[in-house]
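Quiz preparation item.
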């Protein structure tokens, strides 16, 4: 029902308005209508939107209850008669940085230094931190270096080596030794030396055989006033 308006006339007591009874009938009907509307659809509150936290909590009888807005360690809350202000601090209090070997806390207004240890170097370029390997000293920092492919010496010398060992079943050392191709020595020992049965003694090397079994021709001994040369070849 629409709200009824009481006709009060044009001027007091001109007889054109509602009489006293008719006026209060309208008053009663209007109150009844208002009461019906209030009971039929009670007042509620709701939080709108699909994200964030709502501030409406609940309605208790005729009281709408709302949540408080509370600040945290990095956020302060202030208000006036028309607004609530949330203010965040300018930066983080601290950042926990984890590494493969320990961790460190970077506090507010302090810097995180990214330093390299040889052969790793760090640099800054275009707002980015760049990690790179040094061109020298990489192998020396590896306590057990191994190769996954052939090593190309790029026409450079290998110096200061103690012992170079090659697995005779899977690899070999090739190249010249002091300018001599050691493979050429094979022809002097392959199918050319057949000593047969050795009778004079036990030989452990070709040097032993040459010293003990071969004649040595020293040529003519010429010298003024020298009658004799003594040569001691030791025990053969």
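Solution:
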């Amino acid at each position: 029902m629409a709200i009824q308006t009481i006709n009060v006339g044009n001027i007091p007591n001109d007889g054109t308005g509602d009489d006293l009874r008719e006026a209060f009938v309208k008053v009663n009907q209007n109150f009844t209508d208002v009461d019906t509307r209030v009971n039929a659809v009670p007042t509620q509150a709701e939080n709108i939107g699909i994200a964030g936290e709502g501030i409406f909590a609940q309605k208790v009888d005729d009281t709408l209850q709302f949540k408080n807005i509370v600040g945290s360690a990095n956020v302060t809350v202030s208000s006036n008669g028309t607004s609530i202000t949330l203010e965040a601090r300018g930066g983080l209090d601290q950042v926990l940085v984890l590494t493969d070997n320990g961790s460190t806390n970077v506090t507010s207004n302090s810097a995180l230094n990214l330093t390299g240890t040889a052969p790793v170097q760090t640099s800054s370029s275009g707002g980015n931190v760049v990690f790179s390997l040094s061109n020298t000293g990489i192998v020396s920092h590896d306590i057990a270096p191994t190769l996954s492919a052939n090593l190309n010496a790029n026409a450079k010398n290998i110096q200061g080596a103690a012992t170079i060992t090659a697995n005779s079943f899977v690899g070999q050392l090739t190249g010249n030794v002091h300018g001599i191709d050691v493979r050429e020595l094979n022809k002097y020992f392959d199918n050319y030396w057949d000593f047969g049965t050795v009778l004079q003694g036990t030989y452990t090397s070709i040097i032993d055989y040459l010293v003990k079994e071969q004649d040595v021709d020293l040529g003519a001994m010429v010298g003024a006033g020298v009658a004799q040369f003594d040569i001691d070849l030791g025990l053969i």
